Amino acid sequence: MIRINLLPQKRGIRTTGPQVSQRWLLFVLGAVLLEIVALFFFHQTKVSELEDQQQKNATLTSSIADIQKLVANHDAVKKDLATLRAREDAIAKLQSARSGPTAVLLELAQMLTPGKGPTVDADRLAQLRKDNPLAVYNPGWDSRRLWLTNYSEEDRTVRVEGLARDATDVSELANRLRLSSYFYDVQMLPGKKSADAKSKMELVSFSLELKVRY
After folding, report:
1. How far is Cα 99 from Cα 176, in angstroms, rounded to an integer?
2. Mind listing the pLDDT tens digit for each residue in 137-147?
3. What is the CATH number of the domain that holds 206?
4. Domain for residue 25, yes or no?
5. Is 39 within a domain?
6. 82-114 pLDDT tens trace
7. Cα distances (angstroms) measured from residue 48 to each of 41, 43, 44
8. Strands 146-154 and 157-164
């Protein structure tokens, strides 16, 4: 005899439902952790950028403060600059005078002083003495045999006039002028002999034309 059980039977308990929920929960937690880590790094980056910008702002603020101080002292700075420029101009004028007409007159006085001569390069003088002894100056010349009566300059062209005992004294002066580092292009102009009214001594009047360096 065959029996058929028509009562509902109990099904087996499913084990897949809880496992799927746990996996999903782990996935969500992992995503949250990743988001937290990403937010942390993003926050750190922004904090670093903020610090850099704050440092730049501090530098700009310091520069602005310095500029404001300079602007505030603008008048004082202008006065200081004007004073410095005036000093520079005065120094330049003094240096120009030392190397200009004053120096030329001192050179002329030196070469007319007994025992002295023109300013000339030692090597050049030695070579001239070797090549042509007559081209150098005579250290034993008595400069009191000659004196100047006029000295004029225009556009660095000088005219010298004077009296001398004879023509050799004029030649000695011309030689010294040619050797000097201050003079060049020395030309002797025609002179003449005349008698001094007081001493009745015969003298030579002369004129020289030359150029100066300064």
Report:
1. 19
2. 998 899 989 99
3. 3.30.1360
4. no
5. no
6. 777 877 765 565 555 555 788 888 899 998 998
7. 11, 9, 6
8. antiparallel
